[in-house]
Design brief:
Distance between the termini: 44 Å
Strand content: 5-15%
Shape: globular
Largest sheet: 9 strands, mixed
Oligomer: single chain
Helix content: 25-40%
Number of strands: 22
Length: 642
C-alpha cells in the first residue's frame, strides 16, 4: 500500500496526507481496497477534537484503509453514498460532533440559519437525524455490508429516550436507523475490536459482547437473574412516565460505574442490549489517540472556506476527557464518562508545538482545556473506592472526601506551555468549575495551590472575559441541577474582583444562566433578575433549557418526576410559560418592562419590583409579552446548547 510520508507541521515541501474522501485521492494512494468508509454529518476536519477524524486515524494506525465521506447529499440520487463502493469490513456513520437536532433548532424549536460544522456556516448540509437517514440509505444500497453507528447522536439515543423535537418517547436509535450495531461513548477501543473481529471472518451479528456497543437480541435472551440490569420495556415506559424515570436512574448509575453491567430493554419483538462500559482510558491509551498524525486542518476540498467550528479549535489543545461534575442537564459523563482520562504532559506539549508551528499562529493558545477545564489529572486518592462508587457527581451535593482536588498538575502544564518562547499567552476557554478550585480541603498545601490556581487563572489566562456557569440563583433549582449554591459565586466574584484590582486588570466575569429548567418557576427567575441586577450584570450568556436525550433534566422535563426520588417536579412546558421566565433575563429592555411589572404584581412581590424598577417603568403601554409580536431582545444575546 502506497503512502505519502507524513508531513511535519509548517513544512510545505512534503504534501500533507488526509484520509481520502474521493476515488481520485484513493487512486493517488494506490489502494486496491477500502476497509472502512465513514459517513459524517460534519465537514472533514482532521483534528483530534473531531470524532470522525479520531476514529479514522485510530483504524489507520491499526493497519486499516479508511476513507471519509463528509456531509453526503442525501436528497438526490445518493451518488455520494455510492461513489466509493462497498468497504471490505463496514460502513461507519456519525451525525457529527453535535446532536443534529441541537445543531438545527433553537430551544423554541425554530430552525437555525447556520451550521458551525459546515463550510461558510451554511445550513442544510445535513438532514435531521443523519444517523437514521444515512444508515437507512446505506442499508438500501448495500444490504449485505455491516453498518455501525456512533457519535454523540447515536450514543445519547442508545436506549428509549425522550425526543424534544418530536415531543415523544422514542425507542433506541438502533431500531429506527437499521444499523447493525451501535458504538456509544469514546469509540477508539470498540471500533478496533469490531474491525479486528470482522477481518478475522466473524459476522457482524456474532459481535454481541463488545463493551460500549449496543446490539439487537432475542427477547428470550433477556436474563432472568444475575448482574445484568433489566429495564422496564419501551412499551411500559410509553404507558408510564414513572417507569421511564425509574429506568433513567439505573441507566445513569450504570453509565458512571468504573465496571458497569449490561443493560437490557425489551422493545417490540426484540431486546436492546447495551454492553457495559469500558474502564476509563489510561494515560498511555489516550496519548496514543491524541498523538496520531492529524494534520489539524480542514481537508483541502474546502479550498480555504471558513468553517466556524474549526476557527474555535484551531489553536486550542484538549488535555483530558470525562467530567465528574454530573450537572443534571449535561451529557458529557454519559458520553465521555465520569472518570477523568488525562493526557501526559509530554503529549500535551507535543501538540502545543504543532500549534505554534502553524502558519497563522500569532502567539496565543486559545484554550488549554477539556470538558471542565480544571479537572485535569484529578481522581480519587483511593481508586478502589472509586471503582465501587455509584455517585453521579463527585462534586454534588458536596465534593467527595476521596477526591484529590489539587490543581498542581494543571499549573505545571500552564507553566510549561507559557515557558515556550513562541507562546505569548495561553488562555482557558473551556468552562471552569470554581466550586472545585475553591473547595477547602483542610490540607493547607492543597488549598494554597488551589488559591494560586484561581489567581493565576484570572491574572494570566483570561482573554478579556472569564465565563463561568452558576446557571441559577435559587438553591432548590440548583439542587435539581446538581450545581453549588449561588453563594459560592459571590465568593468567586470577590476573588475575581480583588485580583483585577491588585494587578490593574480590566477582565470581565461572564456568568451563564438557564431559564425554564425543571423545578424553576417564574418567581425564581424574578429573584434571579433582582440578584444579577444588584451585581451590575446585563446578562448575555443565557439559554432556555433545551431537553436533550439522556440527561436527568430531560427526564424530569418529560416525566415530571425526579428520577432519584420519584417526587413530582414543576416544569415550564408551553411557549408562554417559558417566555414568562426568560423575559426576566432582560428586565432592562423596554419591550419587557410592562409584562414584568404585571407579573410581579400578580406574584405579590413589591420588593422585587422596587429592586428592578426603583423609579417605576415610565409610560410604557400595556402591550403584553414582547415575544408574541416576534420582537427579539436587544443587545448581544447569546445562547448555549446543553
Amino acid at each position: 500500500m502506497k503512502q505519502h510520508p507524513q508531513a511535519q507541521p509548517g513544512d510545505h515541501r512534503i504534501p500533507r496526507q488526509w484520509l481520502p474522501t474521493s476515488l481520485k485521492e484513493i487512486e493517488h494512494l494506490g489502494w486496491d481496497h477500502i476497509d472502512v468508509i465513514l459517513f459524517s454529518g460534519d465537514a472533514y476536519i482532521d483534528h483530534p477534537s473531531m470524532g470522525a477524524a479520531v476514529i479514522g486515524r485510530v483504524l489507520e494506525a491499526h493497519g486499516y484503509n479508511v476513507a471519509i465521506v463528509p456531509q453526503p447529499n442525501w436528497r438526490d440520487d445518493w451518488r455520494d453514498f455510492k461513489k466509493l463502493g462497498a468497504p471490505r469490513l463496514f460502513f461507519g456513520v456519525t451525525a457529527g460532533a453535535m446532536d443534529s437536532m441541537v445543531n438545527h433548532y433553537t430551544a423554541n424549536r425554530r430552525r437555525r440559519h447556520d451550521d458551525a460544522y459546515t463550510p461558510n456556516g451554511r445550513a442544510g448540509a445535513r438532514p435531521d437525524y443523519p444517523t437514521i437517514v444515512y444508515c437507512e440509505i446505506l442499508k438500501k444500497l448495500f444490504p449485505d455490508v455491516p453498518v455501525v453507528a456512533g457519535g454523540i447522536e447515536a450514543s445519547m439515543r442508545r436506549l428509549a429516550h425522550y425526543d424534544y423535537w418530536k415531543d415523544r418517547l422514542m425507542p433506541s436509535i438502533l431500531v429506527d436507523s437499521r444499523a447493525d450495531l451501535l458504538v456509544y461513548g469514546m469509540g477508539e477501543k470498540p471500533v478496533v475490536q469490531i474491525a479486528n473481529a470482522l477481518k478475522a471472518g466473524k459476522h457482524i451479528f456474532e459481535l454481541t459482547n463488545i463493551p460500549q456497543t449496543v446490539v439487537r437480541a432475542k427477547l428470550s435472551e433477556i436474563p432472568a437473574q444475575g448482574p445484568d440490569v433489566v429495564l422496564h420495556s419501551y412499551e411500559e415506559c410509553l404507558a408510564s412516565k414513572k417507569m421511564q424515570a425509574e429506568n433513567f436512574k439505573l441507566i445513569e448509575i450504570e453509565s458512571n460505574l468504573w465496571n458497569g453491567n449490561n443493560l437490557w430493554q425489551a422493545t417490540g419483538d426484540i431486546a436492546i442490549k447495551v454492553n457495559r462500559t469500558n474502564p476509563p482510558m489510561t494515560t498511555q491509551e489516550i496519548d496514543a489517540s491524541f498523538d496520531l498524525p492529524y494534520t489539524r486542518l480542514p481537508h483541502p476540498r474546502y479550498n480555504g472556506k471558513h468553517i466556524p467550528a474549526y476557527e474555535m479549535i484551531r489553536h486550542s489543545v484538549n488535555m483530558h476527557r470525562g467530567c465528574f461534575g454530573g450537572c443534571a442537564f449535561c451529557t458529557i459523563s454519559a458520553h465521555q464518562g465520569k472518570f477523568i482520562a488525562s493526557r501526559s504532559k509530554e503529549s500535551i506539549l507535543r501538540e502545543v508545538q504543532q500549534v505554534v508551528l502553524m502558519d497563522d499562529f500569532k502567539g496565543y493558545i486559545s484554550d488549554l482545556g477539556g470538558p471542565s477545564a480544571n479537572m485535569y489529572a484529578m481522581h480519587g486518592r483511593d481508586l478502589d473506592r472509586c471503582k465501587r462508587c455509584a455517585r453521579p457527581s463527585c462534586l454534588h451535593p458536596k465534593p467527595c472526601s476521596n477526591l484529590n482536588t489539587s490543581h498542581s498538575a494543571l499549573l505545571d502544564i500552564y507553566h510549561a506551555v507559557d515557558a515556550l518562547p513562541q507562546v505569548k499567552k495561553s488562555f482557558i476557554g473551556s468552562g471552569v468549575r470554581y466550586d472545585l478550585s475553591m473547595h477547602a480541603t483542610g490540607d493547607e498545601a492543597v488549598d494554597k495551590v488551589n488559591r494560586q490556581y484561581n489567581e493565576e487563572l484570572i491574572r494570566y489566562h483570561v482573554s478579556g472575559r472569564l465565563k463561568v456557569a452558576p446557571e441559577n440563583t435559587s438553591d432548590h433549582v440548583l439542587m435539581l441541577m446538581r450545581k453549588p449554591s449561588f453563594q459560592l459565586f459571590y465568593k468567586f466574584k470577590d476573588i475575581f474582583d480583588r485580583v483585577n484590582d491588585r494587578y490593574h486588570l480590566k477582565e470581565q466575569l461572564i456568568p451563564y444562566f438557564i431559564s425554564s429548567h425543571p423545578g424553576c418557576t417564574q418567581e425564581d427567575m424574578a429573584e434571579l433578575a433582582a440578584i444579577t441586577k444588584d451585581l451590575n450584570f446585563h446578562l448575555e450568556q443565557v439559554q432556555d433549557f433545551t431537553p436533550t436525550p439522556m440527561t436527568v433534566s430531560t427526564e424530569m422535563y418529560y416525566t415530571g418526576y425526579n428520577p432519584y426520588t420519584l417526587q413530582p417536579v414543576y416544569v415550564a412546558r408551553t411557549p408562554d410559560e417559558k417566555l414568562a421566565q426568560r423575559q426576566f433575563f432582560f428586565w432592562y429592555e423596554d419591550a419587557y418592562k410592562r409584562s414584568i411589572f404585571d407579573a410581579l404584581h400578580k406574584m405579590r412581590r413589591p420588593d422585587l419590583l422596587a429592586k428592578l424598577y426603583p423609579h417605576g417603568i415610565g409610560s410604557i403601554p400595556r402591550q403584553g409579552h414582547a415575544g408574541r409580536r416576534g420582537r427579539k431582545p436587544a443587545g448581544n444575546v447569546k445562547s448555549r446548547s446543553h
